[in-house]
Amino acid sequence: MCIRDSLPELINTLKTEWLNAVLLPKLVDSLGSQTYLFKITVVYAFKAIGQVTPSEYIADKLLPHLVRVSKDTVPNVRFVVVKALRGIASRLNEAVINSTVKPLLNELASDSDKDVQFYAQETLTSLSLIH
C-alpha cells in the first residue's frame, strides 16, 4: 500500500487543519520540482485528497494547482491531471465543472499528445453524462 492510498484515512483522522498547515504546502512546493515523477505523485495525492474533502475545498485549494500543472511540458503529467479531474469531478458542483473543469478539459482535448487528447475527450463525454 502506498501513501497515496492512505491519504483519505490520514486526512479523516488528522483533519483539514493538518492538511492545510502541513501537507498541502509541501505538496504545492513539490509541484515546482524539475522531476516529472514528483509532479505526477502530487497530482495523484490531490486526487486522493479530493475524494475526502468538500467541494469548496477542492475548488479553492486543489483546482488552481491542477490547472497550473496541466500546462506542464511533460505529457504524462498532463495525462495524470486529466485522470485526477475525472476522479474528483463527481464531488464538484455544476458551476465549478462548467467554469473550470470543462474549459480545462476542452483545452487538453486539443493537446499535442494523442493520449492526453483521447482521455480528455473521454472525460468530457463522461462529464456530460454526469452533469
Report the radius of gyration as a whole number of Å: 14 Å
Percent of residues in β-strands = under 5%
Structural class: mainly alpha
H and E order: HHHHHH
Low-confidence stretches: none
Main beta-sheet strand count, sense and barrel state: none
Distance between the termini: 33 Å
Give the overall form. Answer: globular
Number of helices: 6
Can you give the mean pLDDT?
90
The helix content, as a percent range, equals over 70%
How many strands? 0
Short description:
With 131 residues, the protein is mainly alpha-helical. The chain has helices at residues 3-30, 36-50, 55-69, 75-88, 94-108, 114-130.
Provide an overview of this structure.
The chain is mainly α and 131 residues long. The protein is 79% helix and 0% strand. The chain is built from six helices and no strands. The chain has helices spanning 3-30, 36-50, 55-69, 75-88, 94-108, 114-130.
